[in-house]
């Protein structure tokens, strides 16, 4: 607990798209929030929020060994292990089949997926009080501060506005999940008595869609009559 009496939450990657929504929701829910960021300027939030610059890149960002070292020292000094919620990705799977289950071994095929899978393994080994959420592709409104890489929804909207011909993969299927639904899951996990430590969950929306399917839904047309 902080001197203010509010529960304290540290959000790593608070300047990212999902991170910005999580930080703001936590502040509104009366948490004291600290967040790291990796950009030229920290986003501005309402509420009890403090920023920390995080210059690490690549594996150092996705595999939180230094953070776990710091938390381990805190646990030794204070005799408690705070809940560690790790936002992972469905890209830990290799895409060789559909409907992956949480207990199936991941076999990532890109650097991002490989480092996120490594992070999961490190957390599982070193921090028993954890929950891992494997998110599918995220969509939602523009964040308070634009992120450097546009999300798929914003990318398609821009291409439409500019009337730019664009091609999309039709053989990669994801379960797009609304950003506010992820935030709701995180807030629920932080409520006392609702967490089952040491659990891993796939977290996606109800529809299994290809990139073409997603683009079609965004532009409000069907495949036979594109705009």
From TrEMBL:
Superkingdom of the source species: Eukaryota
Organism placement in taxonomy: Eukaryota, Viridiplantae, Chlorophyta, core chlorophytes, Trebouxiophyceae
Matching PANTHER family: NAD(P)-BINDING ROSSMANN-FOLD SUPERFAMILY PROTEIN
Domain RmlD-like substrate binding: 55-219
UniProt-listed SUPFAM superfamilies: NAD(P)-binding Rossmann-fold domains
Protein name: RmlD-like substrate binding domain-containing protein
Membrane spanning residue stretches: none
Organism annotation: Coccomyxa subellipsoidea
Record Gene3D superfamilies: NAD(P)-binding Rossmann-like Domain
């Amino acid at each position: 607990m902080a001197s203010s009496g509010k529960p304290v939450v540290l959000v790593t990657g608070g300047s990212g798209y999902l991170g910005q929504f999580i930080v703001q929701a936590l502040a509104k829910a009366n948490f004291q929030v600290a967040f790291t960021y990796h950009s030229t300027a920290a986003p501005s939030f309402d509420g009890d929020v403090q920023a920390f610059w995080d210059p690490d890149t690549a594996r150092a960002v996705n595999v939180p060994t230094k953070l776990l070292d710091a938390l381990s020292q805190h646990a030794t000094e204070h005799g408690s292990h705070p809940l560690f919620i790790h936002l992972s990705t469905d890209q830990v799977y290799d895409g060789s089949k559909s409907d992956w289950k949480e207990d199936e071994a991941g076999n990532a095929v890109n650097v991002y997926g490989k480092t996120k899978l490594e992070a999961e393994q490190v957390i599982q080994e070193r921090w028993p009080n954890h929950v891992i959420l494997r998110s599918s592709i995220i969509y939602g409104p523009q964040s308070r501060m634009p992120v450097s890489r546009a999300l798929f929804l914003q990318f398609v909207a821009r291409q439409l506005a500019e009337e730019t011909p664009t091609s999309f993969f039709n053989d990669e299927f994801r379960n797009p999940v609304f950003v506010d639904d992820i935030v709701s899951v995180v807030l629920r996990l932080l409520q006392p008595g609702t967490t089952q430590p040491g659990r891993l969950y796939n977290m996606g929306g109800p529809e299994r869609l290809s990139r073409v399917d997603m683009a079609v839904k965004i532009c409000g047309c069907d495949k036979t009559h594109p705009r």
